Amino acid sequence: MARGFRLSSELIAxxxxxxxxxxxxxxxxxxxxxxxxxxxxxxxxxxxxxxxRSAGVIPxxxxx
Amino acid sequence: MDPIHQFNIEKxxxxxHIGGQEIAFTNSSAYMLLAVVLxxxxxxxxxxxxxxxxxxxxxxxSYEFVADTIRTTAGKDGMKxxxxxxxxxxxxxxxxxxxxxxxxxxxSSHIIVTAALAFLVFFTVLIYGFYRNGLRFFKLFVPSGIxxxxxxxxxxxxxxxxxxxxxxxxxxxxxxxxxxxxTLKVFASFVTxxxxxxxxxxxxxxxxxxxxxxxTALELLVAFLQAYVFTILTCIYINDAIHPGH
Lengths: 64, 246
Known about the structure:
- The complex is a heterodimer.
- Chain A is elongated and about 40 Å long.
- Chain A is built from 2 helices and no strands.
- Chain A has one domain.
- By secondary structure, chain A is mainly alpha-helical.
- In chain B, α1 (about 25-45) packs across α3 (about 80-100) and α4 (about 110-135) runs antiparallel to α6 (about 165-195).
- In chain B, β1 and β2 (about 20-25) form a beta hairpin.
- A two-stranded antiparallel sheet of chain B has the order 1-2.
- By secondary structure, chain B is mainly alpha-helical.
- Chain B has one domain (about 5-240).
- Chain B is built from 8 helices and 2 strands; from the N terminus they run ββαααααααα.
- At the A-B interface, α1 and α2 of A face α5, α6 and α8 of B.
């Protein structure tokens, strides 16, 4: 259960933050709905990356 | 027998008013204070003997445990943050363990508490990262060896990934504690419900009772494990502030 919570919270956090950024972007620049669409998808990607990092599929510190 | 009732915030007394907003000392504050008092007692009142007693061993083990965690995840420089990380670890651990005891209140079952801790870590990382590295801190968002064409996309994803940290950091601890305590309460109320149903019910109630005992043991593990996860993530984030991109 703990592992499930860990991974799902990572994904949800990514999507939620992406959606909030997109919503704020739209509000400020009145580009609705494009900001929401773009940042929602980017947030989804970020969430998937978070999940893969915390599951150890890809290393925490990528070679930078 | 409302499983949510245990999370009610009750005012004990009012401290004062700030801008028309009442600042109250609640049961949540009381348990935070209790955690601080218990930690202080553990660390200060257990003696300094060469051959440690039982309580002194706990104090020494918890020090070693946190120090090892910081050294392995954030390196030697991370020990600068030992007081910060140790405070977070002891607050979360002690309050979670106190929260297992029936009729107590678990402070980390409220998202505002875990979010406050997570944002404390987040802003510590941001401010210290810029203080120590200056603009090189932005290298955190720019992985090397990425073709220029898709670099903006990767940077945007990394920024969102960075901003989502406090969210997942706080939600994880909060959701685990909330779900665990609700599960315990629901199964415990099955025992009383079945017990009220006569002789068959009493025998049926043995099953949820056994489950409650097992779940309490599991919750003890989760309480400690989530405190550890919270601490190790804090260390990983602090490591990013100290070494943003090698």
